[in-house]
UniProtKB/TrEMBL annotation:
Pfam families: Glyco_trans_4_4, Glycos_transf_1. It comes from the Bacteria. This is Glycosyltransferase. It comes from Archangium gephyra. Residues 220-331 form the Glycosyl transferase family domain. Residues 24-198 form the Glycosyltransferase subfamily 4-like N-terminal domain. PANTHER family: GLYCOSYLTRANSFERASE, SPORE COAT PROTEIN SA. GO terms for molecular function: glycosyltransferase activity. InterPro entries: Glyco_trans_1 (IPR001296), Glyco_trans_4-like_N (IPR028098).
Amino acid sequence: MPRELLESPHVIVITSEYGSMRIGGVGTYTNMLVDYLRRGFARLHVVEIPNSNRDPVSVREGPLGERILRAPYPRFQTRLDIDYDPKLEALYRLLPMDEPLLIFGNDSYGTYVGERIRAAARNRACLVHVPHLFASLSHFNGYGGERFGELLRTAPPRILPFIQKDVEMLSRADFVLFVSQYMLAYASQYLGGAPERYGIVGHYVEAPPVVKEHYSDEVRNVIFMGRLESLKGLHELFEHLEDVMRCLPRATFHIYGMGSLRDVLKWRGRRFGDRLVWYGYRPREEVLRVLPEMDLAIIPSLCESFGYSALEAMAAGVPLIASDVGGLGELTAWLPEGLRLRTAVGGNPLFDDVKEIGITLPREELVRVLTYAAAHPEVLAATGRQGAVLAREQHGAGNYTQRMDEFLDRTLQWLANGVPSKTTTGG
């Protein structure tokens, strides 16, 4: 990128999660994006809009030298927050609104705020939307493909605002940066839009401190990493927990993460005693240290935009079983069929009426894959080693930098030429 372009705009990253590097999630992508941008842009601002934050706007310096502004969280779960724009006036006064701006909205909330900054800017401003959930939630609730329009009319109130906002931003942002080919293809095919505005830059993974070298002939330690939510397939996993334990009779399951299902899952698994170990959230460094001690990682998600936990397991050389959904299915397409969980159409716990269509994970699939894993330790060892190579060669920091450089070249040229914002029609 030309140096004069790099030095020209102020760059603003807006997100609901920033700071702690937890395994997976929007926050991980934010941290990667900020770490990349700080190397090329001298004037970098991060706007945090943490969930439920109602405090006045504040400002501080971040650990990477970035300027961090904390702003109120927009409320559009049940209604548009009509009082939100006045709350942003204090934020505008702390941002360089007279300078050219390159704005990244990381998830629909971030882009919602970014759109307001773009509208209030007194110079050229380019808005990049980074969606994370819209396609995954659509498929999770059985509204993939041609049924997407029906979703916008009938989806449960608790998820509809997220999907609606992402769809709006796909149309109204100047550029859209997807984290997987699956999301780009979904948006292009079913939602319309302008592919020339689209780009793909997924997560990258750093080399872990230790990579697994020795593989056991028996699965004794299984790890789950992620939020304890319905989206992660945990209702299905624990509904069939007796079958799961029977397939791996000497295994201990190590559960890393927090979420709304934690107490329910602990209660449902109480009869298995110390075969289930609950860790809650742990520092990323701690999780990476224990990963090589695991014989198997299980990721039974019902929807995933990317599947970062799978990438962390791959990088550490840990054998993996994963469902075939979304970006996770794309990331783990190299796994043998015996280690891939096939999701199916079925009842979905996110709906009040369980007869509503959605995505589920059949008991037969869990039994099939876990039985295969227990009977084929040589396959687990081979895929563990192969995963480490693929993570290093295809998902390293160098790959991320190259893709992001190419994407930024387009946005910076667009910004430098003063092209007016494009609008396309969503599906």
